[in-house]
Fold these 2 entries.
Entry 1:
Amino acid sequence: MSFSFQLLQTDTTGARLGRLTTPHGAIDTPCFMPVGTAATVKGLTQDVLESLGVQILPANPYHVFLRPGHELIRSLGGLHKFMAWPRAILTDSGGYQVFSLADLRKIADDGVTFRSHLDGAEYFLSPETAAEIQIALGADIFMVLDECIETPASRDAAARAAARTFAWARRSREYFSAHGDATRQAQLGIVQGATFDDLRRESADQIVSLDFPGYAIGGLAVGEPHEVTCAMTAEVTARLPNEKPRYLMGVGYPEQLADYISRGIDMMDCVLPTRSARNGLLFTSAGRLNIRNARFAADPLPPDENCACMVCRRYSRAYLRHLVQANEILAAILATHHNVFFYLDLMRRIRAAIASGSFSSFASQLTAQLSSLAE
């Protein structure tokens, strides 16, 4: 199977129901992707991820480039074989990780020079090398190199970053046209522009002119208010082709997902369900639950009485709190299992609501319900 996207239904709110086909299987959209940064979702094995219904995993080229290296992974048959994952994989360019190394990198028009956070070794990442690394990894979907900037940012800084992102996207596109295989991989462009609506519109138009098979929105959910994230997302999706998938990078909390979907987003990813789990925070139908809280020490209830996951069917809050307090590995494993299930189940319910024409009322009730906190 090659790469294709079928838009099945559009809700009056702007929410979209679709099906994204890749050489390693199809993905029902809108979808949430649990992050597998270093070719692994921390705390969960691949067979568990399959049983949870994960159809696509994001991995990060920055981390696997530094360790164990993209050429080693290429020699072992690519990222799918290396990590024993038969379903679809998406890779970021690694740009966000490089740009987050404020004291360890230098940005120029030709690319980024940075030092490894592991051993201080110096590397150079250009749009072409970012594409070459991801071609070697063999991800089904991969991102162009873009320039991420801090929030808040000045208009001048945002404009320079958006212009550089466009220039790099053109170079990435040219490199993939010469060296890649569009029947095996899909390269996605990224829209930047910080929190300036006119810059977002201009960036979207420029990236669309390069005719990528799909588009991502980067540089959001990095500290700006949720309302601004939604506004910038809407500015961009209004200018993206209907027949191609849209990916909002790095979002979000459960109560926010329906807001992004109603702005026409098809794909999302975030470390929140896994990172929060490792810190004892569970997402539930009653809001967020901090399992470290002393009041759960003798609580016989499951983490979420409305959840059908394996953890909620079998274990009590008291036991999970005991595991956290005892610093047991199983605490992170069980909490991660629950949180990933919760996100995926939420997306299944959202897709069903779009299909039935009830998304608007469902989203309103869901947002109100999940915005209340359970401590």
Entry 2:
Amino acid sequence: MKIIGITGGVGAGKTQVLLYIDQHYKCRIIRADEAAHLLYEPGQECYKKLVALLGDSVLCADGSIDKPKMAATIFADQTLLESVNKIVHPAVKQYILQQIAYEKEKNEVDYFFIEAALLIEEHYDQIVDELWYIHSDVAVREKRLAENRNYSAQKTADIMKGQLSEEEFRKHCKVVIVNNGDLEETYQQIRNIMGD
């Protein structure tokens, strides 16, 4: 089983690439964001620590964490954001390692894909066999985020500013997939990489 990390800036189209891979290859895909959300649930590893850190004001009536409220709270406070990341990131990595071990034991898939914005910063290169960078030009990403997520130009600029540079992504990733809009071209690149 080959372990591959997928990364790239916001709006690069990582989801679209993984959708194609999921439909055409025997693989397991884990998205770090989704894994984090699992770990926020009551009874899961991060829940008590996050509630202790952020207080009851981030809870819904049923006791679960209100994710939009939590996001609004932590993104307004850099110190708080760093504290949350110190709780969540190691737990997500641990969860992913457990899932890799589980899939290796089951031995039913050829590939294990991990998608995360912070693969490089969180040193996933120590876990994966190779890193893939999904690249889209800035103008393409801005247009996608405005159309698909209703992001303002300012919100997109703020997110992009906090992400790694093009050079940094390329320096760490063995494979670069260019995803500027023609999906058939993107899929052909995937097929070439996978040896189809």
